[in-house]
Amino acid sequence: MTAESAANNGEMPVLDTQAGHAFVEFDRVQKSYDGETLVVKDLNLSIGKGEFLTMLGPSGSGKTTCLMMLAGFESATHGEIRLDGREINNIPPHKRGIGMVFQNYALFPHMTVAENLAFPLEVRRIGKADREQKIARALDMVQMGDFGGRRPAQLSGGQQQRIALARALVFEPELVLMDEPLGALDKQLRETLQFEITRLAHDLGITVVYVTHDQTEALTMSDRVAVFDDGRIQQLAAPDILYERPENSFVAQFIGENNTLRGVVTRLDRETCVVRLDGTGEEIDALPVNVSGEGDRTLVSIRPERVELDPALGPGAHTLEAEVLEFVYMGDVFRTRLSVAGREDFVVKTRNRADQRRLAPGEKVKIGWLPQDCRALDPR
Amino acid sequence: MSDAVHGPDQVTGATPDNVIRNADRAARSDDGPVLAADGRPLKQSLNRALRTQKLRALALIAPLLLFIIVTFIAPIADMLFRSVENEIVSETLPRTIVALEGWDGGGAPDEEVYRALAADLVVASELKNHTRVGSRLNYETTGISSLFRQTGRDVDEIGEIHADQFIELDPAWEEPATWVALMGDEGWIERQADWKDRKDAAEAEQEAAETRVERRALDFTEPEPRFRLSETAQQALPRTARIYAQFAQVIQAEESDSPTEEEPWNIVYQALYEDLSAGQGQGYEGRLSELVSEARDAVTGFEDQDIKTYFIEEIDEDWADPKIWGTIDAFSDRYTAGYFLSAIDMQLTPQGIEPQPEGQQIYGLLFQRTMFMSLTIMFSCILLGYPVAFLLSNLPLRTSNLLMILVLLPFWTSLLVRTSAWKVLLQEQGVINDILVWIGLVGDGNRLQLINNQTGTIIAMTHILLPFMILPLYSVMKTIPPQYVRAARSLGATPWTAFWRVYFPQSVPGIGAGCILVFILSIGYYITPELVGGTTGTFISNRIAYHISSSLNWGLAAALGSILLALVLVLYYLYDRIVGIDNVSLG
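Output (C-alpha cells, whole complex):
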C-alpha cells in the first residue's frame, strides 16, 4: 500500500463507531511470529452482537491469524482483544466459550457422532438427560437426527461438516468461529450449506466470525465483510457496498470481476474528475474515490456488467472505440473480451436476452458507461 | 464419499456408482451367472484376466519366498521337530526295549532283558553310539551317561566263555569262513568270491606294474558286496543271525574289513549259545548242519554265565536300580513329550507324569521372570518414549530431525558396546554409584547393586529397546492433526482433558505397535541379559542358548523355544482380541 492510500484509510470508518455495543473487539492488535515481520498490523475491529462478519482475503493476509487469536490458539503480540467487554488476551481457549468449526471438520475419529456432540457437554459437566436432549436438538438442527451412532469416517464430507457445525453449536455459545468450513466441499453442497449456516446463525441469534478466501461465499452469507490484505483490513462494509463502492483498487480487484484502465488525473472536482488514459490519451470522466490531486496516477475501475454496448446513455456518459477479441457464451450471460485504450483484457458482460447482440471477433463496437460507475482509485 | 449413506446430500441419479450398480442389478435379474460380452461367465473371464497379474506377483516374491523357506522356515521346523523326536533310544536299544515290555516296573528286570541289553550295547559300543544314548537318557536321570560309557568298555567280555567253549568243541568255530558259510546268503557268498578273485587279480597286476603312477592307477577301489544274511540261518538261529548281520555290517561299513577275515564278537557266540540252548536250530538243514547239530548236542553241557549278575556285580551295581530301567522304558518311544514336560518342570516316569523335584524346578520360574521383565521393560519404554515421541511430533521439522538422530544414535552403535557401557555405568564402583555417593544420597558402605541382577537387565534393555517404542509412536503421532486438540480446547476441554480424551486415544495404535515390537523383542533377548543379568536377571532365552551350545540338549532347547513361540502367538492373539490388530500402525 502506498503512503497515500494509507492516509486515506485513516479517514475511512474502518473502526466501527458503535464501540459501546460491540460484542467482539480488536483494539490495536498486532501479531508477529518471528519478531521481524508483522502478520497482523494494527487491527481495529468491532463486531456487533448477532452479526455475521466475514474475514475475506488471499492466503497469508492475516485473516486466519486473527481468528486464531480470537479463539485463543495464538496470542496477540500487542493490543487487546475483548469479548463482551472483557479482555480475553490471557484467557485460555477452553474458558472462552467460543464455538469453532474447522476447515477439515476435526471430528474426533474415535468417537461416534453422538459422542462428539457430547464432548463439549461432558467437559461442562452437564447431566446425562440434559445432554441427550441437547444433542438430539443440535442434530435435528442440522438435519442429521438419525446419525448419532455413526462414526465420522462413515459420513460424507457434507455430513461431517453438518456434524462439526452441530458440535460447535451444541453447548450454545454466543460466538461461533468458522475457519473456511466449506473449503473441502463441492460447489453444490457448498451453496446448500452456505444457506443453512446463515439461516441457523440468524435463527439462533449467534455472532459468527467466518473466515474464507471465497468472495462469493463472503458476499452471500455476511452482514459485513472485512477484506484483509497484507495484515490490514482494506475495507469493512456490507457486501453490496463492498462490491459497488470499493474504496481501493485491491478491494475492487479482489471482489468480483473488474476492468481497470490506467491513466493520470488531469482535472479534479469534488464530484468528478477527468482521467487521461495511458494507451490512447483519451480523456474520460470518473468518480474520484481514492485520488488526491491533479497529476496523480490513477487506476480506473469499471464493473463488466456496467458497461453498455452501443450506448444510448444520455448526457455525461462516455463512449470509447473498442474491437472485439473474443466472445464467450456462458449461458445466462455473454462475456465479450475487447481491446480498449490499448488494453486487451477489457471484459463486458451482457445478459442473455432475446434481442442481445452476439458479437464476432474483429467487429468494431462503441462502448460506454455512466461516470458514477467509473471509479478512480489508487494506482497500486 | 459413500452414497450408501442416506442424508440430506445423498446423491441419486446417474453417478458412476449408480450406473454400475443398476447394470449389475439388471444383469443379475435373469437368475444366471453374469456373462461377459463374449458369452463366457464373467467370473471366468475376470480370473483369466487376472491370472497374468497373479503369476507376475508370484514370480516377484518367489526368490524371497524360496530363500525364507530354505534358510528360515525349514531350519525352524527341523529345530521344533527335535523337541519331540526321540529315535535314538529305540534305534540303539531295539532288543532291550522289546524285552522290557514284560517288565512290571518294580525291581530289576529279568535275565532276558540283560541279555538283550548286552547285545544292543555291544553293537552300540562298536558304533560309538552308546555314549550318545547315554547322554540322551542322562537328561532325564543323571548318572546314566557315565553308566553307559563304563558299560561300553566292559560289555565285550560277555560271551567270551561261550566263545572258548565252542572253539574247544570244534576249532572250526574260530574260523571266519565257518561263520560266513553258516550265515551268508548263497548269492552273496558267490558275489563275494567273485569280488575277491577280481581283487586278487588287480593286486597281482599292480604288483607287476613298474612305476608308482601305474601302480596307483591300478588301485582296486570297488567295495566288497554288502553282506546278506541267508534266510535259512535267519529262521534256524534268529538271535545269532541278527547279531551276526550287525557284526558284518559294522566290520564292512565302519572298519572297511571283510567278515570273511574277522573272527566274530564274543556276543555272537553268546547268541549262538542262547539259540541252541533254547532249542533253536533243530531243523537246520543248510550247510554245516553237522557242525551245528554237534554244537547243539554239546551246549547242554556248557558252562553258562549269568549276565544279569555280570552286569550288576562286574560292571556297575546301578544296573539293579529300577530307576535306570524306568527311564529307559519311559523314553523308548520314537516320539516323546519328555522335553516339553521338562520345559514345564514336569518329568516322565514309568508311573506317568510327575512334577520335578522341588530343587530342579527352574523353567516355570524362568518363564515367569521373562514375562515379568519383558512387561516391565515394555512399560518403562512407554513411560520414557511417549513424551519424547510427543515432543518430536510437535516440534518443527528441523528440530525434530535433529532430535530424531539422537533417538536413532543407539541404533547405529554396536549392541555390545552399549551393553558394556552400561556395565561401566552400573557396577558397584561405577559412574552412577560414584555420583550417588558423591552427592551423599547413598553411603559409601551400601552402594546400590545395579548390575548382575534384574535391575541391570531392565535398565539396559529399556535403553536398548526404546527406539522401537519411539519410532512407531512418532510415526502415528505425526499423523494426528493438531486441529483435534484445538477443536477439543475450543469445545471447552482443559489441556489435560483434550490430551487424554482426544489425543491419547488416537495415539493408541502407536502404543500398540510399540508394545508388540518391544515385548516380542525383549521376550527373546539374549545378549544383554547374558552380560548384565547375572544369575537373577537372565531370560529363558539364555537358558535356551545354554542348552544349544553347552549342554547340547537340543531337544529341551527346542521345546523351550516352541513354548516361547506359542506364548508369543497366544499373547498376540489376545492382543488382537482386546485391542485389535488393525489398530496397530507403524505409520
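The interface with chain B takes residues 71-73, 92-100, 102, 104, 106, 108-110, 119-120, 123-124, 143-144, 147, 150, 154-159, 162, 167-168, 171, 177, 189, 192 of chain A (CB under 8 Å).
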